[in-house]
Design goal:
2 domains, Lipocalin, alpha+beta, single chain, 8-stranded antiparallel barrel, 198 residues
Length: 198
């Protein structure tokens, strides 16, 4: 009997699937080790969560769809009794529009010195947030993402002078970010349309 026309056995399919998966994994590992993809961003910051709480103006970010087109944006953080953080994103769609608020919750990753958060605004979606640096007086902060997809520059003050902003951009570049991807957010009406602003 000629077995060449018989369909492969189930065990044959499983073996082929396992081989295919192994090839994909090895190919991915090869690409990752080729230097084309930088290693995931990590943080070594130590964050005093109580001092970090309160209101932060979003001075700049890498524009992405939920925050794109917003002005006068800020994040408001409140530490809860269960150790999680109430996370409120406040924004306007224009300076003539009313203020709106989106409410989420953040959990601090154990062992991260308060610097690695998992943020959730819509269940079950979560994203990782890294506090990369915070000023000694907690007047500004740099936040990022392990894959460098997102970045934020925060300030307690709604205005930031050009020299400090340039310094913070340079610091972000030191974490492997492309400075050109980060753009300022108008916190005041006179900033709309100015160079460097979204």
């Amino acid at each position: 009997m000629n077995n060449s026309r018989l369909p492969p056995s189930r065990s044959g399919f499983k073996w082929l699937a396992a081989l295919t998966l192994a090839v994909i994994v090895l190919a991915g590992a090869s690409c990752a080790s080729s230097g084309d993809v930088p290693p995931p961003l990590k943080t070594e910051a130590a964050v005093d969560l109580k001092r970090f709480m309160g209101s932060w103006h979003v001075i700049a970010n890498i524009p992405y769809w939920p925050e794109r087109g917003k002005v006068a944006t800020r994040d408001e953080y409140t530490l809860r009794e269960d150790g999680r953080i109430d996370n409120v994103y406040v924004f306007r769609t224009s300076f003539d529009a009313p203020e709106k608020r989106w409410t989420g919750v953040s959990s601090v990753v154990p062992g991260s010195n308060g610097a690695h958060w998992q943020v959730q605004f819509i269940w079950p979606l979560k994203t990782d947030l890294l506090v990369l640096e915070v000023a000694e007086d907690y007047s500004w902060a740099l936040l990022g993402h392990p894959g460098r997809k997102y970045a934020w520059i925060f300030s307690r003050d709604s205005r930031m002078d050009a020299a400090l902003y340039a310094d913070l951009l340079n610091r972000m570049a030191g974490y492997g970010y492309d400075r050109q991807r980060i753009a300022r957010i108008a916190q005041h009406a006179d900033q709309v349309g100015q160079p460097g602003f979204q």
